[in-house]
Design brief:
mainly beta, 5-stranded antiparallel beta sheet, 7% helix, 38% strand
Length: 348
C-alpha cells in the first residue's frame, strides 16, 4: 500500500478551496495573528524567548526544556508536514514543520524549525499544527483580499484569487486591479508563482474534494488577452496537482501525483510525478530531472514527491518535498535538484 500522506499546508489549501465558491482560500489571511506556542533558539548568544499566549481551541504543546531538546525532537521527528524555502544568492532560508510523534490520528507535538545555515544553528517553535503552519505562508502585500490565495512572481507582481474574485498588484499593494475570470466554466482558482517576467498564471480545477484537479491553466500577460489551455495529459480522466510553477523560460511545470483511475494500493500506469508543458502550455509530457544524490527507486508506481513549490524573492528557487521527508532545490528551471538540509543531524 501507498504510505499514508499527512496533510501538508498544500493539501489543507485544497480542502479550503473546495469550500470557497470558485476561489482560492488558504487561511493565510490570518497569518498576522500570533501563533501560539513556545520558542527556543540555538543561535549562540540569543536568549530563550518566553512562552507566548495560547488559544483555547488549540493549546500549545509543552515546551522543550532547552533549545537542544527542541533540536533533538526535530532530528528524530516522524514526519515533515510542510516546508518553505527562500534563497538569497547561495544562502537558503528554510522553515520546516515537523510532526514529532505520529500515528493514525495525527502528529503531536508539532515543531517549526528555521535555519539559514544548513541547520548548523536554528530557531524552534513548539505548538499546534494549525497555528504553526500559518508561519509558512508567504508574505502578502497590504490590501491583499482577506479570503484569497496569493502568489508573488519574479517581477514583484502579486496575483490573488478568492471568493471576491481575482485581483492583481504590481506596486506592492498600493493599487489593486480586478481581473475577469479567464476560465470558460466555474472552477476553483489557484494563483501560481511565476519565474518568468511579465507572465502570471492561474490554475483552475473542478470539484476535487480533498484534491485539486488540474483542469485548465490561464496565462496572463500585460496588454494581452488571457490564454487558457486545457490539460490533455489524462484524456477523459482527471489529474490532481500538488504544486505548480512557471519556469523562467516560460514553460509550465506541475506535480501531478494522483489520477482519477488510481485505486487504493493500485495506482494507474500513468506517470505520477512532474509534468512539463510545451511553450504554449497546450501539451505536457513527463519530466525527469537529475537529483543529487539520486532519489530512491520508486517501486509502487506512485510519485516520490509530495509537494512542488517555488519562491521568487529575493532570488528564484524551486523545491520539491519527497515522501521520505527530504527536500531538493533547483535554480536551473528544474533541470537538476540538490538535496537541502531541513533539520539538524541526529545525535551520534
Amino acid at each position: 500500500m501507498r504510505p499514508p500522506r499527512l496533510a501538508p499546508a498544500s493539501a489543507a489549501l485544497a480542502v479550503a478551496l473546495a469550500l470557497a465558491a470558485c476561489g482560492a482560500y488558504t487561511g493565510a489571511e490570518e497569518q498576522d495573528s500570533p501563533a501560539a506556542g513556545t520558542s527556543a533558539s540555538s543561535r549562540p548568544g540569543e536568549p530563550t524567548p518566553t512562552p507566548s499566549a495560547t488559544t483555547t481551541e488549540e493549546p500549545a504543546s509543552s515546551a522543550p526544556a532547552t533549545p537542544q531538546d527542541a533540536a533533538t525532537m526535530v532530528a528524530g521527528a516522524d514526519a515533515l508536514r510542510d516546508v518553505r524555502v527562500t534563497r538569497a544568492g547561495a544562502t537558503y532560508d528554510v522553515t520546516s514543520l515537523w510532526g514529532v510523534s505520529c500515528d493514525h490520528s495525527g502528529c503531536e507535538p508539532t515543531v517549526l524549525a528555521r535555519s539559514d545555515d544548513g541547520f548548523e544553528t536554528a530557531t524552534y517553535r513548539v505548538g499546534g499544527y494549525g497555528q504553526l503552519s500559518r508561519e509558512l505562508a508567504p508574505p502578502r502585500p497590504p490590501g491583499a483580499p482577506r479570503l484569497a490565495g496569493c502568489s508573488t512572481s519574479v517581477d514583484g507582481v502579486t496575483l490573488c484569487a478568492g471568493v471576491g474574485g481575482i485581483t492583481r498588484t504590481a506596486d506592492g499593494g498600493t493599487t489593486w486591479t480586478p481581473l475577469a475570470d479567464p476560465f470558460d466554466r466555474p472552477l476553483m482558482i489557484q494563483p501560481v508563482v511565476s519565474l518568468r517576467p511579465g507572465v502570471q498564471a492561474l490554475v483552475g480545477g473542478g470539484d476535487g474534494a480533498t484534491l485539486f484537479p488540474f483542469d485548465q491553466v490561464a496565462r496572463l500577460e500585460d496588454r494581452r488577452d488571457p490564454v487558457v489551455a486545457e490539460f490533455g495529459g489524462g484524456g477523459e480522466l482527471a489529474a490532481y496537482t500538488t504544486g505548480q510553477v512557471v519556469l523562467s523560460d516560460g514553460r509550465f511545470l506541475a506535480l501531478l501525483d494522483a489520477w482519477s483511475d488510481d485505486r487504493a494500493g493500485r495506482p494507474s500506469a500513468r506517470h505520477h510525478g512532474l509534468w512539463l508543458s510545451a511553450a504554449d502550455w497546450g501539451a505536457y509530457q513527463p519530466h525527469e530531472p537529475v537529483f543529487t544524490p539520486p532519489l530512491p527507486a520508486a517501486t509502487d508506481g506512485y510519485s516520490p514527491f509530495q509537494q512542488l513549490a517555488a519562491s521568487a524573492e529575493p532570488d528564484p528557487v524551486i523545491w520539491v518535498r519527497t515522501r521520505d521527508d527530504q527536500v531538493y532545490v533547483s535554480t536551473d528551471d528544474a533541470a537538476t535538484f540538490t538535496l537541502l538540509p531541513v533539520r539538524p543531524r541526529s545525535p551520534a
